[in-house]
């Protein structure tokens, strides 16, 4: 969700950010309908498939952060404190506001207790709403990025760097036991490192050959079929193809999916569908941060209002499609409105300063 701090437009990153923005909403809307379909029905299997295919979205946002940060700062002189100030101001203020919104929403909807201790804990752990753990992750990655950049440049070897990122992530997965491990940055360091390495390859002018694209897509297809089969088996309490592989399936699937979507986005960028790039994709990418923060709030509102009750009675599949479309549009429009409001406020402040 980071915006590119570089003069050269990263078209492939815009595509990836826009797609992942929709996939995050897909994860949470499918979760809303998880138990609404008949067990074992084709609709039930499709919901699980859509949810499974979307599972790499948050790791991919971590990948984007690593990519954009390296692309922006790899040859730039900067002071660490200035970097922290610039980055933290952009993320902390929205995080605090939305944590407050979700805290009060939890109080009104679920009668959750509000006290200073719980508020502080929720802010530290990203617990005001379950999806805010991503904000805690990104704050940690901002804190460690200057050190990562120095070490990566000192190593100056992509294969060795990726090996180190992989080992650190593997150690965290296998041996570190701690509460709230899902929001500890070391649990996602491989995705952040992959973003750094891919950004470096792009700067060096590395081009993917057609043969390599086919190989990547083939690996993605084969592993995705396996991962869906075992994930469905896990949910439906059926025998798994491989318990050992499934244990680490999410990390493997996320890595392969990120590489595959990068290849896809690079192809889409080259094909230059200008009206899509300039209108739909650019706008979704631009407002992805606000969409991510707000979409759960709108899901809750629609749930409380029961707007799709009649449609659900007629067709649960149609209700799912309507709710998915509605959440994407509402949170997207909200992002556009908030951007215009922010610009107006800045304009008024600047005029008063003059």
What best-fitting shape do the alpha-carbon axes yield?
Answer: globular
Oligomer: single chain
Radius of gyration: 21 Å
Catalogue the unreliable spans. 3-7
Structure summary, number of beta strands: 0
Order of helices and strands: HHHHHHHHHHHHHHH
Strand content: under 5%
User: Fraction of residues in helices?
Assistant: over 70%
The major pleated sheet works out as: none
Report on this structure:
With 354 residues, the chain is mostly helical. 78% of the residues lie in helices and 0% in strands. It has 15 helices and no strands. The protein has helices at 11-32, 42-53, 57-73, 80-110, 116-125, 133-155, 158-175, 189-203, 210-235, 243-247, 249-271, 274-286, 288-305, 309-314, 316-353. Helix 1 packs across helix 12 (274-286), helix 1 (11-32) runs parallel beside helix 13 and helix 3 crosses helix 11. 30% of the residues are buried.
Write the layout of secondary structure elements.
Elements: H1 11-32, H2 42-53, H3 57-73, H4 80-110, H5 116-125, H6 133-155, H7 158-175, H8 189-203, H9 210-235, H10 243-247, H11 249-271, H12 274-286, H13 288-305, H14 309-314, H15 316-353
């Amino acid at each position: 969700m980071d915006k590119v701090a570089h003069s050269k437009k990263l078209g492939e990153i815009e595509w990836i950010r826009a797609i992942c923005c929709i996939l995050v909403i897909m994860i949470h809307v499918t979760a809303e309908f998880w138990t609404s379909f008949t067990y074992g029905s084709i609709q039930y299997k499709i919901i699980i498939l859509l949810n499974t295919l979307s599972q790499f979205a948050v790791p991919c946002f971590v990948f984007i952060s690593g990519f954009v940060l390296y692309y922006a700062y790899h040859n730039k002189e900067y002071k660490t404190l200035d970097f922290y100030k610039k980055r933290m101001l952009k993320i902390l203020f929205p995080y605090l506001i939305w944590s407050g919104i979700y805290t009060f929403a939890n109080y009104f909807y679920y009668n959750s207790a509000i006290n200073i201790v719980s508020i502080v804990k929720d802010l530290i752990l990203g617990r005001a709403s379950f999806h805010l753990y991503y904000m805690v992750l990104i704050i940690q990655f901002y804190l460690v990025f200057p050190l990562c950049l120095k070490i990566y440049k000192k190593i100056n070897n992509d294969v060795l760097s990726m090996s180190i990122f992989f080992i650190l992530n593997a150690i965290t997965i296998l041996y570190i036991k701690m509460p709230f491990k899902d929001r500890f940055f070391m649990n996602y360091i491989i995705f952040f490192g992959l973003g750094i390495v891919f950004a470096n390859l792009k700067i060096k002018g590395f081009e993917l050959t057609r043969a390599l694209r086919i190989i990547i897509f083939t690996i993605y297809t084969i592993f995705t079929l396996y991962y869906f089969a075992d994930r469905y088996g896990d949910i439906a309490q059926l025998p798994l193809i491989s318990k050992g592989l499934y244990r680490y399936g999410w990390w493997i699937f996320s890595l392969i999916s990120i590489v595959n979507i990068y290849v896809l986005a690079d192809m889409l960028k080259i094909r230059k569908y200008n009206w899509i790039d300039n209108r739909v994709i650019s706008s979704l990418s631009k407002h992805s941060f606000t969409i991510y923060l707000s979409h759960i709030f709108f899901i809750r509102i629609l749930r409380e209002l029961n707007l799709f009750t009649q449609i659900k009675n007629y067709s649960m599949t149609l209700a799912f499609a309507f709710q998915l479309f509605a959440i994407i549009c509402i949170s997207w429009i909200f992002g556009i409105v908030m951007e215009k409001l922010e610009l107006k406020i800045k304009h008024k402040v600047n005029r008063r300063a003059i």
